[in-house]
């Protein structure tokens, strides 16, 4: 299937700062692509280039096979939802929703405007708020109105820049589910930017991991989580984050320097590598090397243990059938079949 949106070799700098570097990215015609990365990764700049709000220094932007690199934002017919709600506070919800439909050149009749507003309000469960002033809305209600103001236009592409960041945790969880369902209902491609791995894993059809203006990996949530292509990608997904070790293969085992044995290995003798282990793939018992428990965190159905092991802090997840305490000695055991091995030049 041909992508609806396709970026080829996109570069963008802000003064001396390179915000995007050689970005190649495709978004399918019926896809929710999540761009995941830390603050400063270039996520917002990437969205702004897609929307035409910023011009790329190099590269091309194609929409539905047409080169739109030099098109103005209005010509691209893209809806952009920002972190901040940007509603007109003295206007009613209805008037805020109507606003983009009354823009010059829209040429919509009053009946069609009313129908579109009602349709969007019902999709977002805000139909009872249409006559309320926006200044009297809660944060979650404001964000629904901001999203509604975009979908009434029925654009070709949705771009969302961390739209749930300013909401409390419970409301974020509710709205991210609703947004994913809404996108399927509308069947319009969506690019969603976040630094929150829970949002990325729960919402995305595919995830693009961005760091320092570069795309590190693109894949389904399962692919990026289970088969990260570098330690940098691995650390962005997983709670707690993946443990990464510098190792060398000796006598059928992965050794962590001279600190001890981490796990069995079938690698060629003397090979050095970076090795990643998810906390859920380390058992607290059954290994051959002692570890000291430093911190015990209650995660509801499990314990999260932070331990000093093989010369570094390691996180592992333990069941509640046993209690743990700081200072306790345990013998962690790695599931050798679940480790991720990268060439040593990938770095720790």
Structure description:
The structure is a single chain. This protein is of the alpha+beta class and 348 residues long. 24% of the residues lie in helices and 33% in strands. It is built from nine helices and 21 strands. The protein has helices spanning 43-51, 73-76, 93-98, 110-123, 139-151, 169-186, 197-203, 221-226, 231-236, and strands at residues 5-14, 17-27, 32-36, 58-63, 66-67, 78-81, 157-161, 190-194, 206-211, 214-219, 243-250, 253-255, 261-264, 272-277, 282-283, 291-298, 302-309, 312-319, 329-330, 333-334, 340-343. The strands form five sheets. Strands 6-7-8-3-9-10 form a six-stranded mixed sheet, sandwiched between helices. The two termini are 37 Å apart.
Essential attributes:
alpha+beta, 24% helix, OB fold (Dihydrolipoamide Acetyltransferase, E2P), 9 helices
Question: Which helices and strands occur, and which strands form pairs?
Answer:
Layout: E1 5-14, E2 17-27, E3 32-36, H1 43-51, E4 58-63, E5 66-67, H2 73-76, E6 78-81, H3 93-98, H4 110-123, H5 139-151, E7 157-161, H6 169-186, E8 190-194, H7 197-203, E9 206-211, E10 214-219, H8 221-226, H9 231-236, E11 243-250, E12 253-255, E13 261-264, E14 272-277, E15 282-283, E16 291-298, E17 302-309, E18 312-319, E19 329-330, E20 333-334, E21 340-343
Parallel strand pairs: 3-8, 3-9, 6-7, 7-8
Antiparallel strand pairs: 1-2, 1-4, 4-5, 9-10, 11-12, 11-14, 12-13, 14-21, 15-20, 16-17, 16-19, 17-18
């Amino acid at each position: 299937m041909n992508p609806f949106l396709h970026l080829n070799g996109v570069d963008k700098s802000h003064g001396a700062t390179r915000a995007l570097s050689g970005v190649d990215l495709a978004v399918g015609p019926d896809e929710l692509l999540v761009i995941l990365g830390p603050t400063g990764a270039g996520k917002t700049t990437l969205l702004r280039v897609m929307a035409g709000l910023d011009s790329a220094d190099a590269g091309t932007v194609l929409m539905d096979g047409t080169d739109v690199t030099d098109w103005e934002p209005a010509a691209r017919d893209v809806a952009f939802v920002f972190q901040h709600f940007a509603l007109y506070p003295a206007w009613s919800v209805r008037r805020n929703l109507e606003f983009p439909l009354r823009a010059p050149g829209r040429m919509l009749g009053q009946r069609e405007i009313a129908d579109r507003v009602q349709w969007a309000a019902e999709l977002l469960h805000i139909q009872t708020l249409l006559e309320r002033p926006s200044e009297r809305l809660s944060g979650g209600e404001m964000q629904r109105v901001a999203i509604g103001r975009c979908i009434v236009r029925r654009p070709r592409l949705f771009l969302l820049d961390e739209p749930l960041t300013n909401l409390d945790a419970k409301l974020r969880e509710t709205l991210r589910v609703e947004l994913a369902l809404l996108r399927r209902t509308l069947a319009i491609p969506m690019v969603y930017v976040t630094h929150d791995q829970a949002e990325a894993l729960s919402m995305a059809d595919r995830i693009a991991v961005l760091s320092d203006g570069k795309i590190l990996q693109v894949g389904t949530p399962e692919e990026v989580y289970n088969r990260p292509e570098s330690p940098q990608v691995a650390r962005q997904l997983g709670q707690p984050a993946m443990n990464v070790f510098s190792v060398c293969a000796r006598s059928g085992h992965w050794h962590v320097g001279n600190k001890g044995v981490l796990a069995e290995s079938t690698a060629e003798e003397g090979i050095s590598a970076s090795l990643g282990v998810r906390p859920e793939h380390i058992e607290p018992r059954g290994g051959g090397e002692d570890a000291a428990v430093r911190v015990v965190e209650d995660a509801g159905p499990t314990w999260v243990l932070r331990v000093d092991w093989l010369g570094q802090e390691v996180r592992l997840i333990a069941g509640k059938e046993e209690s743990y305490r700081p200072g306790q000695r345990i013998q962690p055991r790695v599931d050798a079949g679940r480790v991720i091995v990268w060439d040593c030049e990938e770095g720790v």
